[in-house]
What we know:
Elements: E1 7-12, H1 20-29, E2 32-37, H2 44-50, E3 57-60, H3 68-71, H4 75-81, E4 87-92, H5 103-119, E5 123-128, H6 133-142, E6 147-152, H7 158-166, E7 170-173, H8 175-179, H9 181-189, E8 195-197, E9 205-206, E10 209-210, H10 216-227, H11 231-246
Parallel strand pairs: 1-2, 2-3, 4-5, 5-6, 6-7, 7-8
Antiparallel strand pairs: 9-10
Helix pairs in contact: 10-11
This protein binds zinc ion.
Amino acid sequence: xxxxxxxxxxxxxxxxxxxxxxxxxxxxxxxxxxxxxxxxxxxxxxxxxxxxxxxxxxxxxxxxxxxxxxxxxxxxxxxxxxxxxxxxxxxxxxxxxxxxxxxxxxxxxxxxxxxxxxxxxxxxxxxxxxxxxxxxxxxxxxxxxxxxxxxxxxxxxxxxxxxxxxxxxxxxxxxxxxxxxxxxxxxxxxxxxxxxxxxxxxxxxxxxxxxxxxxxxxxxxxxxxxxxxxxxxxxxxxxxxxxxxxxx
Length: 248
Ligand SMILES: [Zn+2]
């Protein structure tokens, strides 16, 4: 089914596709709102240049937790650039096996970023929390003025989920997450008005193909099934939530 209204992709790495220009062209044609998160402050200038004439596509300033141990010196640049945008991401913590060894430097970087956000009046934050949901929530609680946190592809347990909901987190979910049993169970426990859609492309894949913002109709369709709501109603709900997220 073709979805007529605007679509939202709140977590996508547009600069990391082999041909970002063609993705941007299609997003413009299709009126898709995209938050293009970055993984290092050094990527900020290039990404914003790519998105120069796209009012619906915004770049977020980020320092990915999986790169924190190699890029912590870029915190200085992060701070310098922090007044150029309302959007921050991808940031967070990664406690999975591969990255747990660097959790201390990740925490130092994440804390510093939240402090910078708080001192600039708060930002919209796209947050990675794989294997470290409680640690992420500890930091968010410690920095209540850092802004509006959106937990992207949340994969914590139900206790962590409850805690995240209690502190008012938002959640962005995509086709890859929604297709998994755990992902769809988590999504069904989140208040519908706190959910937004994401692709997490090009990292997230379906049928071995990188997802893109153009796959957002799939996320809307799966949510419609999960919620037992018509597709149009889901689309309206998502747009409303998006407006609420952006409102003060
Ligand atoms: Zn990502």
